[in-house]
Design goal:
heterodimer, A: 158 residues, alpha+beta, Ubiquitin-like (UB roll), DNA polymerase, domain 1, 5 helices, 5 strands, globular, B: 283 residues, Enolase-like, domain 1, 5-stranded antiparallel sheet, 4-stranded antiparallel sheet, 14 strands
């Protein structure tokens, strides 16, 4: 399409350049043009958090941003959370061990929010953990196992 | 994907943004943090032919200004919550910003200026800005003007921003001597927008007497209003003062707003206790 624009971003450490329609949301460009479907589309209203990524060091809901607006950004998606050898990160392993997910749809929001919390606060209490994930919806777990997973990740990192 | 085709503009300065708006104003949508405008475009509620994205226009940041604070319109809630100058001179704004619904993500994305321009009654920012006696500074390609926050909010989803205009900054005056801030938000569930908010800015002297009192209520009427607190100057923050604030706040709820969260009647009923809690938070 003649109206397309070029989007240059660094995704999970790799410089990428893709053609996008300016109407693309960031989450759509990540899934379609950048080929990383681990970032999910849930509500498209900014409520559920399933589209969460890290952009220039800050966690954001990528359904609330135009892809074009991310020009020049460094983005980490859920695909970039594991160790470079493919092993799960300590946080991911804690979610695995403590049944922190069932369907996994909410994981981008839960994992990035937990990572964000633990970077600021290495031994959060339960209230702090629940506050940190309050921008994300999970319809499987009732949240308790997510809270346990994050506390476990903090304990393993200590 | 957004259905209606549009031309995307990403100006590198406010002047460039104003040029684009001068040309396309009535057919253009200004995007700040994106949290309101982008989903509304996604769902077809806004169908602009031009989108002017302020991300690169350099309107973000907090600076000292005549004993008060100047806040760039693109300053995010997270920046407000973490700025020492805001904590010192506009503490209620820091409390408001830290309590925004939607998680750390939305606090990293949503901007104070964007929220002000959207002017939904169910928002945290408008009431706080009126309580803090903010001045809204607007620019267009033909000039600039400043409007008191109390006049900027004209009604539900109606702010005093014309086609071709951009909210550039928000200035807050120097706080009164011995200032204490209080901010209270009523919502019934974690992920809800606010049903009612109140912001108190009070000056207290060495004897604990009030030298200045300003309390705003947001979310109750279609636009924020000030509670009549004239008679409180000279008294202490005690049960009598709290009772007077409750009565005055309810008396001010003359144009209550109804939406899916709560009826206007409910908002009118809770306006008193919400204002009282803001005052007590400042004690």
């Amino acid at each position: 399409m003649s109206d397309n624009i070029t989007l240059n971003v660094t995704v999970n450490g790799e410089a990428r350049s893709v053609e996008i329609d300016p109407r693309r949301l960031l989450v759509e460009a990540i899934r379609e043009e950048l080929g990383l479907p681990g970032t999910h589309i849930g509500c498209l209203t900014g409520d559920c958090g399933a589209c969460t990524v890290e952009q220039d060091g800050q966690i954001v809901k990528s359904c609330l941003a135009l892809a074009a607006s991310a020009e020049g950004s460094e983005i980490t998606t859920i695909e970039g959370l594991a160790e470079s050898d493919g092993e799960l990160s300590t946080l991911q392993q804690a979610f695995w061990d403590e049944y922190g997910f069932q369907c996994g749809y909410c994981l981008p929001g839960m994992l990035f929010s937990a990572k964000d919390l633990l970077a600021e606060n290495s031994s959060p209490n339960e209230d702090e953990i629940r506050h940190a994930i309050n921008g994300n919806l999970c319809r499987c777990t009732g949240y308790d196992t997510i809270v346990k997973s994050i506390a476990e990740a903090a304990a393993r990192t200590a | 994907m957004i259905k209606r085709r549009f031309t995307y503009h990403s100006p590198d300065s406010l002047d460039e943004a104003l040029e684009a708006l001068a040309e396309h104003g009535s057919d253009a949508e200004v995007v700040g943090g994106g949290t309101w405008v982008v989903p509304e475009m996604t769902h077809g509620a806004r169908v602009p032919a031009h989108v002017v994205d302020l991300r690169r226009a350099g309107l973000s940041g907090v600076a000292e200004s005549n004993g008060g604070v100047s806040i760039g319109a693109m300053t995010t809630y997270a920046q407000l919550a973490n700025a020492p100058l805001i904590a010192e001179r506009a503490g209620a704004l820091a409390t408001m910003a830290a309590g925004i619904t939607g998680g750390a993500q939305v606090r990293n994305q949503g901007t104070l200026g964007g929220s002000a321009c959207y002017a939904t009654p169910s928002s945290d920012a408008p009431g706080a800005l009126v309580g803090l006696d903010a001045t809204m500074n607007l620019r267009s390609s033909s000039g600039s003007r400043s409007v008191a926050a109390g006049d900027f909010f004209k009604g539900a989803f109606e702010a005093d921003v014309g086609d071709g205009e951009v909210l550039e900054s928000i200035t807050l005056p120097a706080p009164p001597a011995g200032v204490k801030f209080g901010h209270y938000k009523l919502k019934l569930v974690e992920s809800s927008w606010p049903i009612a908010t109140a912001t108190a800015v009070v000056g207290v002297d060495g004897d604990g007497k009030l030298t200045a009192v300003r309390i705003s209520v947001g979310g109750v009427n279609t636009k924020p209003y000030l509670v009549d607190t004239q008679e409180l100057v000279g008294s202490s923050i005690d049960d009598d003062a709290a009772a007077a604030v409750m009565t005055a706040a309810r008396a001010g709820a003359t144009d209550p707003y109804s939406d899916v969260l709560a009826s206007g009647e409910y908002r009118q009923q809770v306006s008193g206790v919400v204002a009282k809690r803001a005052l007590l938070a400042a004690a």
